[in-house]
Amino acid sequence: MESIAKCYLGKLNDDSNMCVLHQDRLVIIKNGRVTIFPLEEGLSFQVDHKKWMLPLISGGILGSLTLVAIFKSLYHPWYSLFSLLIASFLLFIGIDGSHVLIVKVDKVATNFPIASDSQDIRKFIAQVKELIATT
To answer: CA angle, corner 95, sides to 10 and 59, nearest 5?
Structure first.
């Protein structure tokens, strides 16, 4: 079946990271893995910015423990400083997060990490929503 629209999720002409819209289904290829979603009324398709919880939580815990160690003089100052820098880096990564493409079908959401929230992806999402509305 012929495709209606195509959108690359990263680099141009990267066939291993793209979205393809057909008349009856949405095909997302991420890192060479193909995921197919039938176009139906319950399908939700959007881009969002998510925070990474594991680095955020681990950075907060490590930072708190390091500050306790610094105030109690439990460790060598250089180890404590290094640990505090690692905790700050983890917190930064967790807060910074990344953009994700979210496809939700009947309360089940599937997230696909993408490089950026580009205008091409926004246009593709509008085409998908328009096609769902007409079917």
So the answer is: 120
